[in-house]
Every structure is written in structure tokens, then in C-alpha cells.
Amino acid sequence: MFPAMAAPPVLFIATVGYVRSFGIRTLCAYCLGKREGAWPCHHAGQVDLTGMIDETPLASIERRLVCTACGAIGAVDARPDWSELSRADPRPNWMAASKRSDNANKGPALD
After folding, report:
1. I need a surface site. Which of 15, 33, 52, 55 has the fewest CB within 10 A?
2. Does some domain include residue 99?
């Protein structure tokens, strides 16, 4: 008797809608191309996701990007710009700054 075969793993494909579900509106794109003398390019930029369809896979966006520094086509690593999340106030509402008047928030006057 043969052992039961496990189901093949499901391949996860990140899409524009998946990235937007985290509240992220841009991708960071890093060039993997080569400059003159075979030096790595390392050029970086941002890609705005507004106007793109939610079902668009990130891999298809990477294949179409062109580096403005070295001219490489599709040699890009695109990732969500997680720094957008750190720009927002990370504290829950109960920890946010109080709404008391300005005088109540100030400490004792120092002369």
C-alpha cells in the first residue's frame, strides 16, 4: 500500500490589493541591474499603487519596471513601503495624547 500523498502547497502570490490591505500605497523598488564595469546599480525608487487594479500581481509590476539610472528592464526587487506604517501614530486611541487644554499639559513654569 502506498502512503497517502499530501496536497501540494498553495503558492501565495502577492497582489496590489494584498499590499493595500495593510494601508500601504507605494512600493519600494530596488534595481538589481549592472552599471558600466559590471558594478551593481543599487538605484532605488518608489512606485505609486494608486490607479492599479487590485488583482495585479507584484511580479508583473517588477517585470515592467525600468531603472532610470542603468536602463535595466525587469531587474527590480519591489517590496511594500513599510515605512508608511511608522509615519502614522502607532499608539492605540487610549494611549494617544490627551485632549486637555494647553495649560493643563504644561508642567510648572521655569524662570
Report:
1. 55
2. yes
Tell me the torsion sign for CA atoms 50, 19, 79, 84. Answer: positive
Amino acid at 31: C
CA distance 57 to 9: 19
Give the integer Cα–Cα distance in Å for 8 and 16.
Answer: 25
Q: Is residue 9 part of a domain?
A: no
- Predicted confidence (pLDDT) per residue in 70-98, tens digit: 999 999 999 999 998 877 655 555 555 55
Return the closest-CA partner of residue 41 out of 4, 76, 11: 76
Q: Average pLDDT for residues 37-54, to the nearest whole number? A: 92
Residue 73 forms part of a structural domain: yes
**Under a CB-based contact definition with an 8 Å cutoff, are residues 48 and 81 in contact?**
no
Domain that holds residue 28: 16-105
What's the pTM? 0.65
DSSP conformational letter for 35:
-
Residue 23 counted as domain residue: yes
**What is the C-alpha to C-alpha distance for residues 21 and 10, in angstroms, rounded to an integer?**
20
